[in-house]
Design goal:
Two copies of one chain form a homodimer. Chain A has 113 residues and is an alpha+beta fold. Chain A is built from six helices and three strands. Chain A has a three-stranded antiparallel beta sheet. In chain A, strand 2 and strand 3 form a beta hairpin. The longest helix of chain A has 19 residues. The radius of gyration of chain A is 18 Å and the shape is elongated. The two termini of chain A are 31 Å apart. The model of chain A has no long low-confidence stretch (mean pLDDT 85). At the A-B interface, helix 1, helix 2, helix 5 and helix 6 of A face helix 1, helix 2, helix 5 and helix 6 of B. The structure holds a DNA duplex (30 and 30 nucleotides).
Chain lengths: 113, 113
DNA sequence: TTGACATATGTCGATATCGGAATATGTTGG
DNA sequence: CCAACATATTCCGATATCGACATATGTCAA
C-alpha cells in the first residue's frame, strides 16, 4: 500500500507554505490571480494550481470579472481547524496554570528545528 | 526542482490524519507506545514513526519509564498554529456580522468534498 | 475575426511520504 | 548471560506532490 489521498482536506491544503502565503495575501480582500502573482514571487501556473487546491477545499471562492478571476478568502472554512484546535485549549490551559513549569519547559525545549 | 522539505513544521506534522489521531489519544495524558497501538488500530512501527515526526516538531515529548516510553502532548507547540488562525479571525468575524450572507453562503457552498 | 491579455491545464523529472515487513536496539527479570 | 517484552530503525514499492515549462482555454477590444 501507499500514501493516502492527501490534498483533499483543509489541513493538508493549509500545510503548504506557499498556499498559506496566498491566503495571507487574500486577507486584505478579493484579488485577481495576476495580483497575487505580483505580490508573491511565484509563477502564474503555480498560483493557479495552488488556488485550485484551496478552491477544492473551499478555502477560497472565485468570481469572474471580465477576463480577470477574483479570488476571495472563505474564512468560514477554517472552522474545522478552529474546532480541532479548541479541543487542545484545555490541555494547553492546564499547563499554562503552572507558569513556572511552562517557562522551564520553553527553556528545556528550545527550538526543535 | 521538486517538493520543499515538509514534515519539518507543525503544519505538516498535523496535516496527517493518523498523527492527529495520535495527538487525540494523548489529550487524556501520558501514554506508552503500546497503549497507543492498542487504542488506534495501527502497527507499532507506524505509531513509532509518527511519534518521531511529532517529536521532532515538539508536539510531543518522551520520557522513559522502565522498558516503556511514555509520550506526552506538548500543547504549547500548537501556538504557531493558534496565532496563524487568529490572523483570520477578523476576516471571519467581518463575514459573520452579515448573518444572512453567511447562511446563504453555507447553502451555496455545501460541502465541497 | 484577430490579436493581446488573463488564467487554467497538461506533462515531466525529482523527491517525499506513507504503509508493510523485517530487523535492530534497549530493558527487565531470572 | 538469556529470554521475553517494548520500542525504534531500516528497507521497500507505490503513489503524491511540487516546481518548471509549454500549451490550451477564455475574454475583451478594435
Amino acid at each position: 500500500m501507499a500514501r493516502s489521498p492527501a490534498t483533499s482536506d483543509v489541513f493538508n491544503a493549509v500545510a503548504e507554505a506557499r498556499r498559506r502565503e496566498i491566503l495571507d495575501v487574500l486577507i486584505t480582500g478579493e484579488k485577481a490571480v495576476g495580483a497575487i502573482v505580483d505580490d508573491l514571487s511565484m509563477s502564474q501556473p503555480q498560483v493557479s494550481k495552488h488556488l485550485r487546491v484551496l478552491s477544492e477545499v473551499g478555502l477560497v471562492s472565485c468570481r469572474a470579472e471580465g477576463r480577470h478571476r477574483l479570488y476571495r478568502l472563505e474564512p468560514a472554512r477554517l472552522r474545522p481547524f478552529h474546532e480541532w484546535l479548541s479541543r487542545y485549549e484545555q490541555a494547553w490551559n492546564d499547563r499554562m496554570d503552572r507558569v513556572d513549569d511552562y517557562l522551564i519547559e520553553l527553556q528545556r525545549q528550545g527550538d526543535p528545528q
